[in-house]
Design brief:
This protein is an alpha/beta fold and about 425 residues long. The termini are far apart.
Amino acid sequence: MTVNKSKTIGKKLVIFFVYVLAIVVGVFVVCEAWFRFYFRSGKTVNDYASVIVDRRLWKLWENNSNDNPLLPPFRVFADTNINDLNRLKMIVKETALPKNTKLTAYNFLRPQSIKDQTAYTAAINNLGFRDPTRTVAKPKQVFRIIAFGSYLTFGHGVSDNDTYPRQLETILNQNRPDNLKFEVWNAGRDSGTAIEGLAKLETGALDYKPDLIIWDYGFVDPFIVADNDFPVTTMLKYKNLPEPFKSVFVAGKNFLADHSLFYSKVVQRLAYLSYGKNLANFMSVNEKMLQIAAANRIPVIVTQLSLPQNTNFATRQAYDKFLTNHPDMKNLVSFVNYNDVLEKYPPTEEVARQFYDQPNWLSEFPANLKKIGPWKRAEYFTDIYHYNKWGYQAIAKYLAGEISTYLKSQPFKNQ
């Protein structure tokens, strides 16, 4: 009797789990169908594009055998414990680019099938910057600018001469006052976070005696929950699972990532779980960097695409208010919104012709992306997120104007 009762209970449990699984699968299929219809209808084509690109990124972030500092997974650090000097020294050491080397990579946000077409080289100099050879001692009548930042400062996907720091240096020297020479040092690094800039300021960057500092952080900061912990790839802690469960889990996850828009969008949204806390930490790092600049009487330019494109309007307003009302902002030369830059320097007809006459990132997505996506200046991008040489040229022109205006009001005194 007891045996029969156990069998009956077991059978009911199996049936129950089958029903639950069927419901879960049914809901998943319905959601998947709805997402595919909605995404492809053109109403959210920008979301559709970002899901496709993020899929490529997630796969690379899970590759733990990469030794190329220009490709994921990157060394990335959360904006926490900002007063721990030993931690800051460790961050500088861990994120340092190899000196006196030429690194080659490709635009990993574009399809791997065309990586030969998107390949680029980055020359790292004697001091670890993406620059020509520099001297620590600053010559007389040299106005030295150090640009800190992440992908946009380093120049993801473009050649050395096409980065905005290099183009900015060229433009400034073409229009320089007599007996004054400009140096613009590129201290950017792909996937850099604000604490990396702070660490450099606290542990040696000021020894180069910069006359002005630019920084551009925040593109990845809100999504980093801990050091080297990028949520979309590490929030599902499966690496300690025993075999064969691990293999089954990984195979299922990879299948869903490759074929399911619904799954990809859910994982994308999970990245926002710690967004508010991380953004607050990011602002704290900005505040400390401003304090350091003010204490050393170094003028600052802060860029606004220091926040991701999809940051909500209220968050952007809070960041704007934080910067413009901060007591140390008396040292602020300019608060640059890259959207304003692109409006002031729209693509010329020649730039548009060259962009559309060759394979470009837009061709990888539905045709209606050109009309509905958020990229009003698509010709200025090398992929969904990063600028190309023309976009960086527009940024360089804008910054050159801001710096020239500043120098007219504050005559240069060699430090």
